[in-house]
Specification:
- With about 325 residues, the protein is α+β, with helices and mostly antiparallel strands.
- It has two domains: about 5-165, no CATH class; about 170-315, Pathogenesis-related Protein p14a, CATH 3.40.33.10.
- The chain contains 14 helices and seven strands.
- The protein has helices at about 5-20, 25-55, 60-85, 90-95, 100-105, 105-125, 130-135, 140-150, 155-165, 195-210, 220-235, 250-255, 275-280, 285-290; strands spanning about 180, 190, 215-220, 240, 265-270, 295-305, 310-315.
- Strands 2, 3, 5, 6 and 7 form a five-stranded mixed beta sheet that branches. The chain has a two-stranded antiparallel ribbon with strand order 1-4.
- A hairpin with a 5-residue loop joins strand 6 (about 295-305) and strand 7.
- Helix 1 runs antiparallel to helix 6 (about 105-125), helix 2 (about 25-55) runs antiparallel to helix 3 (about 60-85) and helix 6 (about 105-125) packs across helix 9.
- The radius of gyration is 26 Å and the shape is elongated.
- The two termini are about 50 Å apart.
Length: about 325
Amino acid sequence: MKYVDLFIILVVCFYGYTGYRYGFLRVLFDMTALIASFFIALVSYISVSSYIQRSFGIRESFSLIIGFFITWTVAEVLFYIVVQLIYPKIPEKIRNSKINKYGGILPSATKGLFIISLFAVTIATVPFQSGLKDAVNNSKIGKPLAKNVSFLNTNLDKIFGGAFKEATEFVTIKPESNETIDLGFTVTDVNVDEISEVEMLELVNKERVKAGLGTLVMDEKIVAVARKHSVDMFVRGYFAHENPDGLSPFDRMEAGGVKFLAAGENLALAPDVDKAHVGLMNSPGHRANILSPDFNKVGIGVIDGGAYGKMFTQNFTD
């Protein structure tokens, strides 16, 4: 059994137990409040977001998230107050009856499943790190739960997607620049994205063919150097051609056993291959490397950092 499945079972059991403690009527009130407040937030968060954006000058992508949670929280609080006023008026004999107690188990467990489903579909929608997303997708319970509320995907992507995409739309620095960008985060749970590496090679070679140049051949030694640098930038939280140890792209290629007379490097941090490629081609220095007649080999290292985007390193040699 996957740890995600075990966690879901424990949560459902916990909610079932609390359902017995509180009883059917209280659980019914609470569950109605939870679902109603969530859908009220889905319907009205855009208006709240617009007000926040106008009043405080916050970007739309982040004001959507703030507006959604403010609306949901306010709705939940209002429903909670109403429940607190109504529930005590129900006779104690009814509240403490065995029928009410045992009747609360199933709806409370259902409430737990609904909450877990919201988390599962959010993880599937928002670009969290791939390990967590894989765990949910490989879960025998979590995956079906996410599918059962898949109608929320579009709404959740509208709320959360913009902020993540905006944060990692496209980052680069000029070739051979000594500039270092502090990423402000580190990522250790990373994966090599071989599919993106192949796709990027195809895009690069299409550009070269259009320019009347020969295609580049992927070199495994250069690929290893490129991947290592992409991983290093994520792990140590920087973005630069020269690493914190003072090693340049040429130093790293020599250390990796790569033979060359001419070499170059392109770097990009982006959500996907297309955005990285377009960004590099729109930059004169990077475009010059991609279309240089001096280069015959390339090593492309693409490392997937989950929510933080993909790190692209292109190393070119003659």
